[in-house]
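User: Quick one: structure for sequence A, then sequence B.

Assistant: Sequence A:
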Amino acid sequence: MANPISDIKRMEIPAEEVEKNNLEELIKLVSENKESCIKGIDLLSAMNESGMLDAASALIKHRKEATKNVVQELNKPQYSATLENLVELFLLLGEIDVNEVSNVTDKINHGLKEAMEVPPSNQEKMNYIGMIKALKDPEINKSITMILSFLKGMGKEL
């Protein structure tokens, strides 16, 4: 019968070979992710030029102190209402139909653009009869109808 194995010798990989394997793996990863590496270097360079890299590094090194200071600042009475309103604002943002707001905003922007194109010297004072005549203009009528519909809908919720 064979003798039992009592001493296990682990294969030791020489440090030079481990270093060589690590470098080969790193070269392969850099080669496969060349574009990402270039973007990362560009980002770090831009952060360094603006001083943000030093600020970020300092913030990370002293994160406990920074967090403590931020929490102390936010616990001041002057910020409590703001923080409470911030939570409500985030909940409100979830209820807003962004597409509808975008449509209305586009219309408002178009109206402002047209209003700014009319030079002040061409803007004459409007009287009651002029306002009544303006209501016959289909574009003005559509806008007033939209505003009145908005006010009616808002009034239903009051």
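Sequence B:
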Amino acid sequence: MKQTCSILILLALGLSGCAAPVPRVDIETVQVSNPIKLSPGTSKKIYVADLVDKLSSLKIGQAESGTLCVGGTELLWTGNVAIRNLMSSQVREELLSNGYAVSTSLLAIASERDADVVVGVALTDIKGNICSALNTGTKGEVFAELSWEVFDKASAKTVLLKSKGTSKFDDFSRTGDPDIYLKAVQVATRNFLSNEEFAKLVGKK
């Protein structure tokens, strides 16, 4: 009986050790557009809600490890509250740097109440091929898709938009995680800000 159990254990270990590596995912090519900048004082007051996840799957790509980037396991989008918070900040900073009057108050309820325009944003797709090495950092490539819902209170008009962004780190970076994800969101936000419909909606008449 002991011998039979030992053989079964060895077989299980052998099978798990020979599992096929997870393949790399295709990263969509995204055209980068210039954001439409607003002159000081020409933007309505904007409230941007915290970014939320609306992913169809938590399996988002391939994860490799070590300086030689070996392994090929599932890259999972789990436990990323801290990165989502950084993404929310990234979105707001991008709008602010282009002249959009985004509230920076810590009082979310008051900011939403006082805003002329309310903006919701969701991460609806993310893919990546990531390699991480101890004491060296992270490199790879990431694709992100953001879905936007923009509500103008005065006209009661709602606009739904999507934008995409990518990032690629060819060299290991000690801040590559989270920077590689934040860069993709930054590009997606800039592409969102290139939309003339949004710029007209939030610009003062």
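Residues 1-17 have pLDDT under 50 and may be disordered. The longest helix spans residues 81-97.

User: Thanks, that's what I needed.
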